[in-house]
Amino acid sequence: MAEIETKAGQNQKRPPVVVVLGHVDHGKTTLIDHIRKTKVAEKEAGGITQHIGAYQIEHQGKTITILDTPGHEAFSAIRSRGAKVADIAILVIAAEEGLKPQTKEAIRHIKEAGIPFIAAFNKMDKPEAKPVMVKQQLAEAEVFVEGYGGQVPVVEISAKTGKGVDELLELVLLSAELEDLKTDTGQKAGGVVIESHLDQKRGVVATLLVLEGNLKVGDFVVSGGALAKIKMMEDFAGKNISEALPSQPVLTLGWSQAPDVGQPFEAVATKEEAEKKASQSVGAEPVLFIKESGPQKENKKILNLVFKADAQSSLEALSEAIKNIGSEEVAYNVVGYGIGNIKDNDVRTAVNGQGMVYGFYVDTEKSSKRLAEKEKVKIKTFKIIYELVEELRKDLSDLLEPEIKILPLGRLKVLKTFKTGSNYQIIGGKVTSGYAERGALIDVLRNGAKLVSGRLAELQHNKENTDEVKEGLEAGIRFEGPAEIKEGDLLEIYKKEIIKKSI
Questions:
Q1: How far apart are CA 257 and CA 451, in angstroms?
Q2: pTM beyond 0.70, yes or no
Q3: What is the dihedral of CA 344, 347, 352, 355, to 10 degrees?
Q4: pLDDT tens-digit profile of 117-133?
Q5: How far apart (Å, rounded) are the C-alpha atoms in residues 259 and 225?
Q6: Which of 416, 404, 402 lies closest to 475, judged by CA?
Q7: Which one-letter DSSP state was computed for residue 21?
Q8: pLDDT in tens, 197-222
Q9: What is the DSSP string of 131-151?
Q10: Side-chain half-sphere of 466: how many Cα atoms within 13 Å?
């Protein structure tokens, strides 16, 4: 890692903290993985054995902290507690697809957080990439990039090949210089909790992002109703350290209970002070899991879910992360939730609700696995919050009725009928516009009105089988459908494209 100024005092520079946001499948995870694999020193990369929610890289001799939580719901869950967790955002947009619903939601989160951001146009290695289109769409979303009347920098990248990634990191460092990120390393340590869970062997483990001061082993720390005397710290590569510096993510042990994700933490002088602050923070338990997500509407399709997690704080983080997932057509409904491993009763609850079980940092009892197989209940377990969020989006999207798009191909005028069966006809005609294609669908029109529909099963031109007959040519057709076609009828030839919808 690059050297960071550690001398106590005011106005010491600190590395920027970067969050990567964007629509699902636009390349957030690929970009984060590429940066980690190419920019983390080999000896440190080899030590990364678990996900702690953030890591640090070195570029041009300077350190950058990257939050490894690309789902914007996770970022939102942290922000919802008032913690300014990131200094700079990278908005990843697939250049061949442009802005999608989650892109627009990510833009809203960035604007609400009030942090500068860089637009990274990804998948530029694809021939269908349209960067000009994306710039126009951003302008429509009131994001004005450089060259389009604004100051938001754009960099064209391929997370897959790595092209443009160095330029992107240079822009991050430039933005950090402009932000002039400083801290007072002489003050008590403070920051935000970015992940926490119950480890079966080590007890409660919490990843803290230090934003001010230096955190040391032996410090007393309080976060909401949770407190700790830090008995051990590890950096993102799993190496034991005795001190964590500003902007550094660190895994900590010694907690009385799992602190809430997104909750600020602070170091205090004594155990008594920590206990006092923690007791003052304990209030009513939050309301978990709204009953039904998305706008209220009749005939909505509902996915019933049971949630199990390792700690109350995890349930709260999940509840916050998924609360806005849903649409006018589909929604989730939580029929049960709790702390601890997935047990038989959880499976039975899912059976009664015809739903599935989601687990976060928990295991499934052997008997419960057998019961789930017998009752055909799906159990899905996760260790990363944004993976759970994106899986829920996919499961809800599977409930959506696909969109059927009609693609007109051409028209054929019937000149003669040759053979008629119980549910087919052999006919001849001339393609008057477009083209006829084997396997296409047909609407039969008579006097401008639709008579019957069917399928173009076989197609011939000059008595030879073919896949396509163009405008102006004659064709022989085997029409599969009600045998009612007469000379003079008009055949409208088209295809249906089934488009899977997503939320």
A1: 71
A2: no
A3: 170
A4: 999 999 999 999 999 99
A5: 7
A6: 416
A7: E
A8: 777 788 888 899 999 999 999 999 99
A9: HHHHHHHHHHTT--BTTTTS-
A10: 16
